[in-house]
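Section handout, structural biology tutorial.
Before the tutorial, make sure you can parse a SMILES string by hand: atoms, branches in parentheses, ring closures as digits. In the record below the ligand is zinc ion, and the chain has 138 residues. In the tutorial you will relate the predicted structure tokens back to the input. Do not try to memorize them.
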Amino acid sequence: MKVVRRCLNCQSEFEANRFHPHDQEYCGRAECRRASACAARKKWRTAQCEKDADFRRKESTRLRLYRQAQRRRAAALCGLDPRSMLSGLRERLGELERSVLGLIAFLGGGRGRAQDAEGFLRRCRELFRDLETAELVV
Ligand SMILES: [Zn+2]
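Predicted structure of the complex:
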């Protein structure tokens, strides 16, 4: 019996492998197989983190180093020093706050919208604070 499923990555329909029709969530395209392998590794790492404290510490270190490398790559692509990227982002965050609050006031968004915007801006400030406290080793 043929089982037709929808790929979790590309959303196209595919005929599942007849030996494992209920396990297959991705089609056979190369990018979907990569997405499947990535999802499987992520699921495995999450399960390991839940049951192994040592693995969780190593995973935390691995992710910190990976994020630092990503920031360095992003800075290099822009031809910037990571520290100057932070000061640029700080200025942009200030502009964003003034723009969002000014736009809400201009459009007469009322108290509810202003509170929604405050929540959003607070979250942006928290993310930026996390970014500032992260090590930016170049
Ligand atoms: Zn696919």
